[in-house]
Structure formats: structure tokens, C-alpha cells
Amino acid sequence: MEDHRISALADLLAEAERTGQGTQPLTALHEDLTIEQAYHVQLTNIERRVKAGDRIVGKKIGLTSLAMQKLLGVDQPDYGHLLESMVIENRGEIPMRRVMQPKVEGEIAFVLKQDLIGPRVTVLDVLQATDYVVPALEIVDSRVSDWKIKLPDTIADNASSGLYVLGGRPMKVEELDLTQVGMVLYRNGQIENTGVGAAALGNPAACVAWLANALFRFGITLKAGEVILSGALSAAVNAQPGDTFTARFAHLGEASVSFTLD
Amino acid sequence: MTMNNKALAEYLVSAETEKREVTRITAEHPELTVEDAYVIQEQLVGMKLEQGYRIVGPKMGLTSRAKMKQMNVEEPIYGYIFDYMVEDSGRISMSDLIHPKVEAEIAFIMGKDLEGPGVTGAQALAATDYVIPALEIIDSRYENFQFTLPDVIADNASSSRVIFGSAMRRPGELELDLVGVTLSINGQLKDLGAGAAVVGHPAHSVAMLANMLARKGLKIKKGDIILTGGITGAVMLSTGDYVTAKWDGLGEIGFTVSE
Prior knowledge:
Chain A: This is 2-keto-4-pentenoate hydratase. With about 260 residues, chain A is an alpha+beta fold. Chain A is about 25% helix and about 30% strand. In chain A, the strands form two sheets. In chain A, strands 1, 2, 3, 5, 6, 7, 10 and 11 form an eight-stranded mixed sheet that branches. Chain B has six helices and twelve strands. Chain B has helices at about 5-15, 35-50, 65-70, 120-125, 150-155, 200-215; strands at about 55-60, 75-80, 90-95, 100-110, 130-140, 160-165, 180-185, 190-195, 225, 235, 240-245, 250-259.
């Protein structure tokens, strides 16, 4: 696919985000859109944002649960970029105009103290390179109407990233068993679902290792100080104006966020 | 109630003993109420006591929001675990069972009597000596696990087998609603959850049990071991399966399913 077509697809997504009007799936326009091309569309929009003054602060990994992979008919995760403009403070508010069709997930976030360079990063490498983990809420969102996404659609759309919240207390990875960390997600005080670390590819650290290795082919390194959202521990829950979401994690504390009308 | 409670209890006990599935009792008695069903369950429990079996403790069922919604109920149900159901050999036999499923739970060992009404989760925790991990094998005596609420209550809440873990913790040592649990079969992750999947907190399940028993003038007794309800969903078992489950802070349990 020529550069100008990649650029045109990036325009569609950027325009959808600017206007708040979802686009039709890119795969409806280009049935043959490959995963590789989709990542180039994603990178095009990220580079434009960085040029406009935003900054890359980390990465997110998506499609880490068997349920999500089945839903999209894929057998691997995907990833997107976290930007400075996506950060919401713990217990903060999100005006609905900042999002389009938001859903909320509870995750474990990693903050690195060393760079991680693929292509042979292991779980043990990730644990040794991690400064600390904290509980996180990810607000996923789609610039594609009605979330009608196939794998290349969500990849091109920055892996359906929206906003994110870090909360709780930072902990060293040696202080807990990441695979068994329990999580409860509440919406307005009601339990929506529960999860556990192993929901993300069996181990959240395995997701980070996958990411480091997947980034290698794009010449990208995970850098010290970066925040990595490692993947949802339970199903994403739709957010409505007025909703408050809280995720409580064993050992790690909680992260919370509210959605306001404007 | 016009039907014979004792005959219905015998019908269910013989289905269990003969390891065969039977037609649900509401097929013939659609008017059966929840109260009627507990009367049949009492008959069934009485028959097992007469046979010389001992009650280990009550168990709670339908404690997840998903199951309550599915059965359209507001509160869980209870049944009883007997000594012959406790499996310590590290294996269960398919030939002893009908169509077993497994779910991971947290069990409470009671240090004091607990009597409703009005008991809360905090009081339940205070009356608890230890919490331990447990794998419960449920095995409805009904065809294809198809039943209405009164059916499953009469059938002793599908109770069949239980495998307790050896890690005992004081209830205050853990945040029980945040204990993460994974359930795997032959190395493949089948289901997972956290303690809060059980009516918000496993201790809340014990409190609800005390309050439900109080309506019948009964109470939870010191020494009872209570199964609080599935943290994971129930997963179908097959011959040859090796089942493992892991609890954060409460260790692991494994068992095999033989012929």
C-alpha cells in the first residue's frame, strides 16, 4: 500500500476523533488491509500528534484475553501508544466530549526502570526491568462506529486506546504473584465483574514480553520510565455519563474515575 | 402440597446412588415452591443421616450475579455437604458420578455458632476460625443439568464432592474479596475470578446463610465447614482430566479424574 493511502486512512481516523463522528471500518474500505499496514496507519497518527506537541509516555497491550481473541478471531494481542494527553489523574473526571463510545477495564500497569529490547525478551527479563507495578483503569474507545472492528481496524486506531488512570500504590514485582492478583471492577458501587492477573495471557509480565518482542520489527524499544498497560483482567464495561468506576486490586489498592456530561 | 415429599427425596437419593440422571421433579409438579423444595431437601438430608452419614457443613449455591440472573433469584440457595463427599485421595472417579462439574471456592471453618437474623459479613468473619481453599464438584441429578430453582434446592443444591486444600489462614490475614483464583484443566486456563464474585464477599455469603437458616429456626454451628459459593464458573469434567486451581495466599489444589 502506498504512503498516500496509509496517510488517507490515518486521516479518516483522525477526522473521526476530531469530529466525534465514528468512521466506517477501514477494512470495509480496504478488505486487504494487513496488520503491518494497520500498524503504519497507527504510527502515522502518533507521529502527527507528537509533531503537534503531544508526547509518548508508554504503550498498551490489547486483546490479551482468550475471550477477546476469540471475539475477533485472532490468536495474538495487539498494541497501541500511550500519550501524555491520555492521562487522567486517579479519582478524576472525564467529560463525555473527550470520548466517543468508552468502555472501562481494570489492568496492571508496569513502569520500567530499564529499556527492554526484543526480539528475545522473556518474562524474567520483564520482571527484572520493572521498576514497579500499579493498578490502572483503561478507558478504551473506538473511532470506528459501533465498535465494528476487525483486527486491522483496532490496530490502525491505536489499539482502541482512549484514556488511562493510574492509582493505588506502587509495588515491586517481587512482592506479589502477578498471576494471582485479584481484581474487582465496580460501576457506581455495584460489582460488574472480577478478574485475576492470569487473565492477561496467563501472566501480565508475559504480555509485556510479547510487546517488547513485537515492537522489535518496527525498530521500537520499550524505554525506562515508560508506562505499560499490560491487558484487561476482566471484560470491558460500557461507560455512561454519571458513572463512577472503581477497580480494587489485591495488594495494590484501587483506581477510580468518573464520567461527566460535560 | 399434595405430593409425597419423602417419595421425591427417595427419587433423588436413588438417582445419586445409582448414578443416573432423572427428569426434573417440577416436570410433574410444576406447582412446587421454594419452601416445598426445602422440605424435600430436609427429607433427603434426614435419609442420609439415617444411613449414618455425618454433615460436614452447609454449602451455598447460586452466589454469583450471573447465576442469580440466570435463575431469576434475589438470594442464593443452600444445601449440605456430607462426610462421604469429602475426597482426600487426589482423585475422583467418573463412575461414581453422573456429569460432574468443578468450581473453585473459599471454605470457612466456623469457630463459633452464628445465628441470624441480621447477621452481617463482619460478624461472620468474627465467628470464623480459618478459611481454606476448596474445589467443589457439583453433579446435578437432573438430565443435562436442566432444572428450575425448586428442583435444584430439592436436589441438595447439586452437592456431590469436595476437595479441600491444606492451606489454613486466619480470616483477617487476607482480603477475601480480592483473592484471585485460577482454574485450569490439563494446563489450560478454564476460568478465573476474585472472591468478590461470591455475593460481593465470601463472608457475606456466610452471613446470608445464617440469616436464611434463621427463618427455619436453625443456625450455623461451631465446627461447620461452609462452602461459600463458586468464585469461578462451573467447568465440565471428563475422564483423564488433571484439574488444578490456585488461590492467592491460599495455595493450590490438584486432582485427577479417573474412570
